Amino acid sequence: MRIMQKKRIRDEIPDTIILVEHPEIVTIGPKAVRDGVTVTDDYSQSIVDRGGGITWHGPGQLVLYPIIKWNSNEQSIKGIISKMEQLVIKTLEDLNIIGYRDPAMMGVWVDDKKVCSIGLAFLHWVSRHGLALNYATPGVRIENLPCCGMDIGKTTSLDKLGYNKNLNGEKITRELLEKTILSNIELILDRVPDAPLEWNLEE
């Protein structure tokens, strides 16, 4: 992401959206370090430079990284975060799920549980890091963590709240979420996506 961020600053690449699903890892932001938040050794861990506390990543979670150069009329961190939240809220709405903001904390909530975390870092108004939307996380791996400084159990995934199908009866999979979220990029982020590219990172 750092390399792509610098390339975007130099206009060597266009605005880019990365959609991935990570192996399990807990990322630890500066706030968690300052507050002395610890994670048990049965979780892989990594210190990161985005804002906030700890965030779980793993199977059953769609992660979106916006490597975007924000225009002068968009250059508000609060405004950009709001756009990321609205992208998720509109995507959930298309799946017949009511998502909403909590004024006290970034992210998106469903039925009083947090299902999407957002944390960005900027350089010359080009963003990196991004959002993580939990749709079918395993067991209680995420529920057992004090994500974003909240109580254990406050963060969960859509399937645990009973939302595992859309209006047409399709299972909410990574593929369906990707398709739905990409369909909202132009409306919410005011950018027209080109044909997606795929990489095999194991090659």
Explain this structure.
With about 200 residues, this protein is an alpha+beta fold. The chain has a single domain (about 1-190), classed as BirA Bifunctional Protein, domain 2. It is about 25% helix and about 25% strand. It is built from 5 helices and 9 strands. The strands form 2 sheets. Strands 1-5-9-8-7-6 form a 6-stranded antiparallel beta sheet. Strands 3-2-4 form a 3-stranded mixed beta sheet. Helix 3 (about 75-95) packs across helix 4 (about 175-185). The longest helix has 18 residues, at about 75-95. The chain is globular. The protein starts with a helix and ends in a 14-residue tail after the last helix. The model has no long low-confidence stretch (mean pLDDT about 90).
Write out key terms for the chains shown.
single chain, 203 residues, alpha+beta, BirA Bifunctional Protein, domain 2, 3-stranded mixed beta sheet, 5 helices, 9 strands, globular
Any chance you could write out the topology, listing elements then pairs?
Blueprint: H1 2-9, E1 16-20, E2 25-28, H2 30-35, E3 45-47, E4 54-57, E5 61-67, H3 77-94, E6 100-102, E7 105-110, E8 113-123, E9 126-134, H4 174-183, H5 185-189
Parallel strand pairs: 2-3
Antiparallel strand pairs: 1-5, 2-4, 5-9, 6-7, 7-8, 8-9
